[in-house]
Amino acid sequence: MVAQNGTGNQNVEAEKLDVLESTQTVIKEALDKLGYPDEVYELLKEPMRMMTVRIPVRMDDGSTKIFTGYRAQHNDSVGPTKGGVRFHPEVTDTEVKALSIWMSLKAGIVDLPYGGGKGGIICDPRNMSFRELERLSRGYVRAISQIVGPTKDIPAPDVFTNSQIMAWMMDEYSRIREFDSPGFITGKPLVLGGSHGRESATAKGVTICIREAAKKQGIPLEGARVVVQGFGNAGSFLAKFMHDEGAKIIGISDAYGALYDPEGLDIDYLLDRRDSFGTVTKLFKNTISNKELLELDCDILVPAAIENQITEQNAHNIKAQIVVEAANGPTTLRATKILTDRGILLVPDVLASSGGVTVSYFEWVQNNQGFYWTEKEVDERLEKVLINSFNNVYNTSKNRKVNMRLAAYMVGVRKMAEASRFRGWI
Ligand code: NAD
What we know:
CATH topology of the largest domain: Rossmann fold
CATH class of the largest domain: Alpha Beta
Number of domains: 2
Bound molecules: nicotinamide-adenine-dinucleotide
Low-confidence stretches: none
Structural class: alpha/beta
Pfam families: ELFV_dehydrog, ELFV_dehydrog_N
Strand order of the largest sheet: 8-7-6-9-10-11
Shape: globular
Keywords: NAD, Nucleotide-binding, Oxidoreductase
Protein name: Glutamate dehydrogenase
Radius of gyration: 20 Å
InterPro entries: Aminoacid_DH-like_N_sf, Glu/Leu/Phe/Val/Trp_DH, Glu/Leu/Phe/Val/Trp_DH_C, Glu/Leu/Phe/Val/Trp_DH_dimer, Glu/Leu/Phe/Val_DH_AS, Glu_DH, NAD(P)-bd_dom_sf, NAD_bind_Glu_DH
Order of helices and strands: HHEEEHEHEHHEHEEHHEEHEHHHH
GO molecular function: glutamate dehydrogenase (NAD+) activity; nucleotide binding
Helix content: 40-55%
Mean pLDDT: 95
Largest sheet: 6 strands, mixed
């Protein structure tokens, strides 16, 4: 049976199935390389728990609309599960499952005491009012409240969800439990126990990975030509950080098109003009397509938007020497092989975009302790974690003669497999 989504689009559904199957393929390869028996793969290939909920929401016009939501908990052998909640019309149960597995891998790579979780609601927040979004966010928490909590499963922001939505969700959970529970969710506003540096953490992590990858490839960041696909939370902060590192951002894009200037774009101006959904290109006449953007002549390419952007169709045309995946799943497995065979250093999503979950973990630790850190402390800790993790994956890739994606999966899956074994599950 194919997964259901808001559009009913068979292509979208097939793509999401492909993402899950690709993830399972690499997990199997990683476990085989590490010498684990088949039952470990059988345990880890799907989430241990998957909940589907139907959420009635009173709309502003007085009608009631029923939304479908999901929460997947991949593996809680290491600790509580953790991962974002996505609001998007094309969310499917298959996608949420795959994303929860990726969260487990990320937690393993940066060595956090978590397993992976993920949530999603089929909806289009761009067409919903502020109050409708609040009712939907609260309804979702009521629907999943039995299986989540600060020591069970800790949600966070993802595509089209933000700190305001986290605040409503935290408030709803605290009301249900009848005590204040800031550690129930991360990505909250600072005044509600959010962490300094959380909003820009994913982009900071990507920046650290780019810096380390550039060192390995002998590319100086000063003057390096960078292309970023997507100008939302991850992409826009990243463009700013790379610009501040002295790189030249020659291309950026959003869902409606891309901007290109070989002399470098005015990032501060674009940041100022982008809307809360990461849209900015609509303001310009001279745009190029996302397809053209990916194939631009540049040193570093950062897909920071959606899945399946680099495929076997365009992998041969990618001109960057380094591809760093800020988005989840932007490169297919076939494209990974093509890029690697061409000598392009690909830093995979499960490593490159793990800055977000790392600072989410810092936020949860601060909430549990009731003791808060400065932005400098957060940044220093993040830097240390990411540099170690990058080098761990890079060295595994060199020592075991495998590509960076397989190396990252080998690092990411090991702790879960060991913890499941010690618990006597397998
Ligand atoms: P966002 O919603 O803030 O921004 C998404 C951006 O992608 C927007 O600029 C949007 O216009 C653009 N986009 C949407 N559809 C597109 C399309 N078809 N073609 C080109 N561009 C398109 O989302 P975000 O939080 O920046 O997340 C982006 C990616 O990074 C996702 O894959 C997400 O899972 C991943 N990620 C984000 C975080 C985080 O903390 N924000 C953490 C880990 C991974």
